């Protein structure tokens, strides 16, 4: 009886420790990331007119991917994507995996990560942004 009670208490403590902690940091980082993206677009707008349209489109797609990642992945991977507990860091995931490999992980899962958390264009935008993180 005592062993099962101890196991239940230990399991509950482990579960609560794994689930707690990341939401406040994720909210603050999302706001910071949005502000930084706006500054970058303003800076690039003052450059060459011929490349301005291309850069803005790339930056818009990049900003969309960053927003998707920060709002969907930060809960488990940390506000700065530094990894939390048993979840790996995504801060430099582009050095370890290609964009196609990242997309495969997002769609099909790997290890403790379930597949299908993002679908379609959101999954592709997130994979493209994560592949740039080196």
From TrEMBL:
<feature type="binding site" description="covalent">
    <location>
        <position position="76"/>
    </location>
    <ligand>
        <name>heme c</name>
    </ligand>
</feature>
<feature type="signal peptide">
    <location>
        <begin position="1"/>
        <end position="17"/>
    </location>
</feature>
<keyword id="KW-0249">Electron transport</keyword>
<dbReference type="InterPro" id="IPR051811">
    <property type="entry name" value="Cytochrome_c550/c551-like"/>
</dbReference>
<protein>
    <submittedName>
        <fullName>Cytochrome c551</fullName>
    </submittedName>
</protein>
<dbReference type="InterPro" id="IPR036909">
    <property type="entry name" value="Cyt_c-like_dom_sf"/>
</dbReference>
<feature type="domain" description="Cytochrome c">
    <location>
        <begin position="60"/>
        <end position="134"/>
    </location>
</feature>
<feature type="compositionally biased region" description="Low complexity">
    <location>
        <begin position="28"/>
        <end position="64"/>
    </location>
</feature>
<keyword id="KW-0732">Signal</keyword>
<feature type="region of interest" description="Disordered">
    <location>
        <begin position="26"/>
        <end position="64"/>
    </location>
</feature>
<dbReference type="GO" id="GO:0005506">
    <property type="term" value="F:iron ion binding"/>
</dbReference>
<dbReference type="GO" id="GO:0020037">
    <property type="term" value="F:heme binding"/>
</dbReference>
<dbReference type="InterPro" id="IPR009056">
    <property type="entry name" value="Cyt_c-like_dom"/>
</dbReference>
<feature type="binding site" description="axial binding residue">
    <location>
        <position position="77"/>
    </location>
    <ligand>
        <name>heme c</name>
    </ligand>
</feature>
<dbReference type="GO" id="GO:0009055">
    <property type="term" value="F:electron transfer activity"/>
</dbReference>
<keyword id="KW-0479">Metal-binding</keyword>
<dbReference type="Pfam" id="PF13442">
    <property type="entry name" value="Cytochrome_CBB3"/>
</dbReference>
<dbReference type="InterPro" id="IPR054782">
    <property type="entry name" value="Cytochro_C551"/>
</dbReference>
<keyword id="KW-0408">Iron</keyword>
<keyword id="KW-0813">Transport</keyword>
<keyword id="KW-0349">Heme</keyword>
<dbReference type="GO" id="GO:0016020">
    <property type="term" value="C:membrane"/>
</dbReference>
<feature type="binding site" description="covalent">
    <location>
        <position position="73"/>
    </location>
    <ligand>
        <name>heme c</name>
    </ligand>
</feature>
<feature type="binding site" description="axial binding residue">
    <location>
        <position position="113"/>
    </location>
    <ligand>
        <name>heme c</name>
    </ligand>
</feature>
<dbReference type="InterPro" id="IPR012218">
    <property type="entry name" value="Cyt_c_BACSU-c550-type"/>
</dbReference>
